[in-house]
């Protein structure tokens, strides 16, 4: 094995070390004899003895120096190879790729000729690696590398910058045809199944592209922007690619700010609950309120839930935030009429926490709310993450007397067999169907089908997103008599007062029209 790839010393290095040590020992031995025997030894005059010892000392010093510098040179080569090349593929490692990007940026800023950095990522590689085993995962990476080398021009530089992430540095003059056609062809070829030793493995890719000097000359910034483009491509679906544009940077900066501010906002008490009424059309009576979280930042004002809920789920902050929402909603519900409930949205991450049912039980105990006055809204996605565990959780909630509504029904899984396996009490028709019910006959048919399905299952039905009187009329005609939406009230802080179900005169007036 070559010295530069092996941290152990070479035979020559070991020989030099042993020789220099032996000579040094010999010289010390002679010096000891001289001290012990006086001016002469074996008939050799003292002056000659000194000369011999000086020569031997010089020889030993030279050998030791050679040994030392051989080791330094070998260590430097080894460290260079360890830090600049990927062991598995032989491609440039991330530090080396950063250096090459810096060199390319300097060159392109001087010549003006564009250079593209293509960031290629194998989607969900960790899950693939876990599923097929690490040895097969390594085989997949080697096969992917071999094909990637064959798909890009010879002058392109390739680096492995993550477990399943690769970077290709490609001069503009090396692109065959248009960049769009090259990327499309590259993705098609790289997504062809890979023949491993045990099976055929398919992969999907996401690709992000930046151009230098247009998108910057700082290598770290270029890599960050290529990754932003890659994330944008991944959000668009399987096998997509995206070119970086400035808006991606602004979105990423805003996301970073949200992530860094969430914990502080929670500790500071920025969050509050607004409530949107749910109305029974035949009687015009409010029967419940949906609790909706709001974040009012002291400097930036109101921040929409869509901006921070997903980030809270990814960072783990959804746990304390979701528990606070549940506790506050249950506490507020004590001030509502006895026949009025409060509905709380449950995040998929929150639903699958270790002791979700225990948290709900403790909240009900501490707030004193009756089970019949609490409704939990859970999406199809949350229930389908782990069907067996979800079925157990829903059964436990039902045994406690808590109603569960399937939120955004009709937009998730096409396999409706879970409706038979799961315990729930209500289906909530998604606003996407309601918004088109008076303009699209297909949406009307879907709504009618969902209403019929709810009756067959013996569960309640509610429609969200009702904004016009015509929509409310058509929903009631289809058999859906419980609704919520801007027509009947926007989300607002709950005003505790006595009266008939908290319905304002405007809410009752609109409801009575139907």
From TrEMBL:
InterPro entries: Cyclic-di-GMP_PDE-like (IPR050706), EAL_dom (IPR001633), EAL_sf (IPR035919), GGDEF_dom (IPR000160), Nucleotide_cyclase (IPR029787), Rev_trsase/Diguanyl_cyclase (IPR043128). It holds the Pfam family EAL. Gene3D superfamilies: 3.30.70.270, EAL domain. SMART domains: EAL, GGDEF. Residues 113-246 form the GGDEF domain. The chain crosses the membrane at residues 12-32, 44-72. The keyword Membrane applies. Residues 255-505 form the EAL domain. CDD domains: EAL, GGDEF. Keywords: Membrane, Transmembrane, Transmembrane helix. PROSITE patterns: EAL (PS50883), GGDEF (PS50887). Signal peptide: none annotated. PANTHER family: CYCLIC DI-GMP PHOSPHODIESTERASE PDEF, SIGNALING PROTEIN YKOW. This is Bifunctional diguanylate cyclase/phosphodiesterase. It comes from Mesorhizobium qingshengii. The lineage of its organism: Bacteria, Pseudomonadati, Pseudomonadota, Alphaproteobacteria, Hyphomicrobiales.
């Amino acid at each position: 094995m070559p010295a530069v790839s092996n941290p152990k010393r070479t035979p020559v290095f070991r020989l030099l070390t042993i020789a220099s040590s032996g000579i040094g020992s010999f010289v010390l031995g002679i010096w000891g004899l001289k001290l012990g025997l006086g001016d002469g030894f074996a008939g050799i005059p003292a002056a000659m003895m000194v000369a011999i010892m000086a020569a031997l000392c010089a020889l030993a010093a030279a050998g030791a120096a050679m040994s030392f510098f051989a080791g330094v040179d070998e260590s430097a080569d080894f460290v260079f190879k360890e830090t600049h090349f990927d062991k598995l593929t032989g491609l440039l490692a991330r530090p080396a790729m950063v250096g090459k990007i810096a060199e390319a940026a300097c060159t392109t800023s001087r010549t003006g000729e564009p250079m593209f950095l293509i960031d290629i990522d194998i989607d969900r590689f960790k899950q693939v690696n876990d599923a097929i085993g690490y040895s097969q995962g390594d085989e997949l990476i080697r096969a992917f590398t071999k094909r990637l080398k064959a798909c890009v021009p010879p002058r392109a530089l390739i680096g492995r910058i993550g477990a399943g992430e690769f970077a290709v540095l490609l001069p503009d003059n090396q692109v065959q045809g248009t960049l769009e056609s090259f990327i499309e062809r590259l993705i098609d070829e790289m997504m062809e199944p890979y023949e491993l030793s045990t099976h055929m493995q398919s992969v999907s890719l996401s690709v992000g592209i930046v151009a230098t000097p247009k998108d910057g000359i700082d290598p770290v910034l270029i890599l960050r922007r290529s990754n932003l483009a890659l994330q944008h491509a991944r959000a668009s679906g399987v096998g997509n690619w995206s070119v970086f544009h400035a808006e991606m940077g602004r979105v990423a900066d805003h996301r970073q700010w949200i992530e860094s501010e969430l914990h502080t906002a929670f500790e500071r008490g920025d969050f509050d609950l607004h409530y949107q009424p749910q109305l029974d059309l035949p009687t015009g009576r409010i029967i419940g309120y949906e609790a909706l979280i709001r974040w009012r930042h002291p400097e930036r004002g109101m921040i929409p839930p869509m901006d921070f809920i997903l980030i809270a789920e990814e960072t783990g902050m959804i746990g304390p935030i979701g528990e606070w929402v549940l506790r506050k909603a249950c506490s507020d519900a004590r001030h509502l009429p006895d026949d009025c409930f409060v509905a709380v949205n449950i995040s998929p991450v929150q639903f699958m926490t270790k002791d979700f049912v225990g948290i709900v039980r403790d909240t009900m105990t501490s707030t004193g709310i009756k089970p019949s006055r609490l409704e939990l809204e859970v999406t199809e996605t949350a229930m389908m993450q782990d069907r067996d565990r979800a079925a157990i959780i829903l059964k436990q909630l039902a045994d406690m007397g808590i109603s569960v509504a399937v939120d955004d029904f009709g937009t998730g899984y096409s396999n409706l067999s879970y409706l038979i396996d799961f315990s729930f009490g209500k289906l909530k028709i998604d606003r996407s169907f309601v918004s088109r019910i008076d303009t699209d006959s297909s949406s009307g048919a879907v709504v009618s089908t969902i209403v019929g399905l709810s009756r067959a299952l013996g569960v309640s039905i509610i429609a969200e997103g009702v904004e016009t009187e015509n929509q409310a009329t058509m929903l009631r005609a289809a058999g859906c008599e419980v609704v919520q939406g801007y027509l009947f009230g926007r989300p607002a802080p709950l005003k505790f007062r006595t009266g008939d179900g908290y319905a304002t005169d405007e809410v009752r007036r609109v409801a009575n029209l139907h």
